[in-house]
């Protein structure tokens, strides 16, 4: 049976339509009048029975080459054991990292869990051979078995055709079954695929790459299979920091939690100007990651009378102590890692010279604050006042796009999953500095127990030109002398004038002012509401929704014609944040706001602190708030998605399908959407003729 869709309708008002005017106050904005039209009755939510194509030309024999690009890489997904940078701890997980050919082990050191860093230039073709060497027994849409990291999910049972979750009331009594949406259930942890995050390239979530088939299935590369990804980088692609990670619905979160990720740089004028125009040679990466570690040594499994697994497995956390500069509470949480390490040392940063820090927030379900303080022995940084005590720094680019104007001075930034920030740091005194994550009540900076927490993310050791400030009693004298000579030589090469005026620097922008989207280009406005449901006391994960519905892979939910400029009002109905990410199309941020008080939550003002018209591919929707963005669909057509980039939310429903290049048939969810705006409910109005909600803003 073919999918059933409603007819595609114009978003313009017709005389025959019936409307109601809702006047409500939307946060702190002047936008107060809404007119909403919708379907009279819910539309059928049917799925296609058509078998997805299995003969994609992009699947290849693993012995065949995939090297026809100007730049060619191979990614191998496998399970490896990696050494932590403290104690005698190892962890085993899925990764793109490759063991040393001689030792057979993953090398120790920073970023050891990450895949190879890719480099490509505008105008080049990029081919990636993706080889899946993960375990085959976890592949075929089955619920996880007991060895999986999120133990809660192993209590899933399949009574008949419906997947249900067995839970125990508190206090524990007889087990009950709660039905959950099988489309949005974590599963298939060893089937995988690849997403190049932020790149302006062909749509590549569905098979084959660039598909225009509305019924196309997700690319799913099973263990033992290989896929040849072929991309053409546009000649005018902004150069900067991007990244890659898996994106198969149901397994993307667990695979990123496990460490499957890597960096990708588009190389162009920005990097040339750093070196030749300003002599900035010290560029370093700062990748924030929030894995969940679990001690599997004491795990036991029992079975109840109904043959349902009951796992007696409390979550154990890695014990970390004195090396963390007095962070006595860190052993009680799952820590944030930077470059694969707990509180790494960024050594030999030269005084008065510029450190170019390239920040990626690769967290799965957390935001991070980024604040710099001068290190003081015994200081409690959780109580530090970032407004008065922090060291200022500068933003020069966001999400791979260099700013049109000058660098922006900040004392704090808040980064969410998927976002990148390029920063300039400059210190006028030697000594140690710390980069701090401060847990803020009311934001999603929570550990697994729901409490905000603090952590020193990294330490920076600032030295002068003739200083070698490495404290290592185990290093022999001659080795220390050689290292000092190397450090001195490096510092001379990197020496810069101490009077560099960062606020007045100018770089070639990623986008010119002529590429700014203007109001007269906007053809329609659409509402996108992120919300969640289910009782988290009953199930281990809530179900997440876009416009009141969880993700369905065989439905087209939004569309855009090539060349369309569309305004999206992104609404967050929850008290935590959601980072919104749209694939292969970046956007301009126009407005942000929240119902919550910035007096009560001071950092919320920083979450909403943005430069108007800044280009991004991932943006935060503030808690109980909204973000307004403008998108223009210029270069690529086909079937793609947008979603919350807390991938645990995406895997459990917070994703929608976008079709660029409107097909002959279309489906819109807009049958019943609780808007939950400003403390009120947006009432849906009957319309006999049109199934598409239309929103006008006055």
TrEMBL record:
Residues 485-496 have a biased composition (Low complexity). GO terms for molecular function: copper ion binding; oxidoreductase activity. The keyword Metal-binding applies. InterPro entries: Cu-oxidase-like_N, Cu-oxidase_C, Cu-oxidase_fam, Cu_oxidase_Cu_BS, Cupredoxin. Residues 476-500 are annotated as: Disordered. Belongs to the multicopper oxidase family. This is Cupredoxin.
């Amino acid at each position: 049976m073919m999918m059933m869709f409603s007819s595609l309708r114009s978003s313009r008002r017709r005389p025959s339509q019936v409307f109601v005017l809702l006047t409500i106050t939307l946060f702190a904005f002047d936008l107060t009048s809404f007119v909403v039209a919708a379907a009279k009755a819910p539309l059928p939510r049917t799925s296609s029975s058509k078998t997805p194509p299995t003969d994609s030309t992009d699947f290849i024999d693993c012995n065949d080459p995939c090297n026809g690009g100007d730049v060619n890489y191979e990614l191998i997904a496998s399970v490896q054991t990696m050494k932590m940078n403290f104690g005698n701890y190892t962890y085993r997980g899925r990764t793109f990292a490759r063991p040393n050919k001689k030792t057979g082990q993953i090398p120790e050191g920073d970023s050891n869990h990450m895949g190879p860093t890719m480099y490509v230039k505008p105008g080049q073709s990029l081919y990636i051979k993706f080889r899946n060497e993960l375990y085959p027994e976890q592949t075929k849409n089955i619920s996880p078995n007991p060895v999986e990291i999120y133990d809660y999910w192993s209590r899933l049972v399949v009574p008949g055709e419906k997947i249900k979750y067995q839970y125990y009331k508190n206090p524990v009594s007889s087990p009950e079954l709660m039905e959950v949406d099988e489309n949005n259930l974590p599963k298939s942890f060893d089937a995988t695929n690849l997403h190049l995050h932020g790149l302006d390239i062909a749509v590549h979530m569905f098979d084959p790459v660039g598909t225009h088939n509305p019924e196309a299935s997700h690319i799913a590369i099973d263990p033992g299979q290989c896929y040849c990804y072929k991309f053409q980088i546009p000649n005018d692609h902004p150069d900067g920091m991007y990244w890659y990670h898996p994106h198969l619905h149901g397994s993307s979160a667990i695979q990123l939690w496990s460490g499957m990720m890597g960096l990708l740089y588009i190389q162009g004028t920005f990097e040339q100007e750093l070196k030749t125009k300003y002599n900035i040679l010290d560029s370093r990466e700062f990748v924030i990651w929030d894995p969940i570690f679990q001690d599997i040594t004491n795990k036991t499994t029992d079975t109840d009378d109904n043959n349902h697994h009951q796992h007696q497995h409390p979550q154990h956390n890695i014990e970390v102590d004195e090396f963390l500069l007095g962070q006595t509470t860190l052993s009680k949480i799952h820590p944030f890692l930077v470059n694969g390490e707990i509180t790494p040392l960024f050594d030999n940063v030269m005084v008065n010279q510029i450190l170019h820090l390239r920040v990626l927030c690769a967290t799965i379900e957390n935001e991070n604050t980024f604040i710099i303080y001068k290190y003081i022995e015994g200081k409690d940084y959780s109580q530090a006042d970032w407004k008065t005590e922090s060291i200022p720094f500068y933003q020069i680019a966001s999400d791979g796009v260099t700013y049109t104007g000058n660098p922006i001075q900040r004392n704090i930034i808040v980064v969410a999953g998927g976002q990148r920030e390029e920063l300039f740091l400059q210190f006028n005194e030697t000594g140690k500095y710390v980069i701090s994550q401060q847990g803020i009540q009311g934001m999603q900076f929570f550990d697994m127990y729901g409490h905000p927490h603090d952590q020193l993310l990294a330490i920076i050791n600032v030295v002068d030109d003739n200083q070698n400030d490495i404290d290592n009693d185990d290093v022999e004298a001659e080795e220390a002398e050689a290292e000092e000579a190397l450090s001195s030589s490096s510092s001379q090469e990197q020496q810069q004038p101490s009077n560099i005026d960062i606020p007045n620097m100018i770089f070639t922008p990623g986008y010119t002012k002529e590429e700014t989207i203007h109001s007269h280009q906007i053809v329609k406005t659409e509402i996108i509401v992120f919300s969640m449901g289910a009782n988290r006391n009953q199930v281990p994960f809530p179900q997440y929704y876009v416009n009141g519905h969880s993700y369905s892979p065989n439905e087209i939910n939004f569309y855009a014609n090539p060349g369309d400029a569309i305004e999206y009002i992104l609404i967050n109905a929850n008290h935590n944040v959601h980072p919104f990410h749209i694939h292969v199309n970046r956007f301009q941020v126009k407005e942000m706001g929240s119902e919550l008080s910035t007096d009560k939550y001071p950092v919320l003002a920083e979450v909403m602190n943005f430069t108007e018209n800044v280009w991004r591919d991932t943006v935060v929707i503030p808690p109980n708030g909204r973000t307004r963005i403008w998108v223009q669909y210029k270069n690529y057509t086909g079937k793609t998605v947008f979603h919350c980039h807390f991938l645990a939310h995406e895997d459990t429903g917070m994703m929608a399908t976008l079709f660029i290049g409107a097909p002959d048939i279309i489906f819109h969810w807009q049958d019943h959407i609780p808007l939950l705006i400003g403390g009120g409910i947006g009432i849906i109005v009957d319309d006999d003729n049109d199934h598409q909600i239309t929103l006008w803003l006055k």
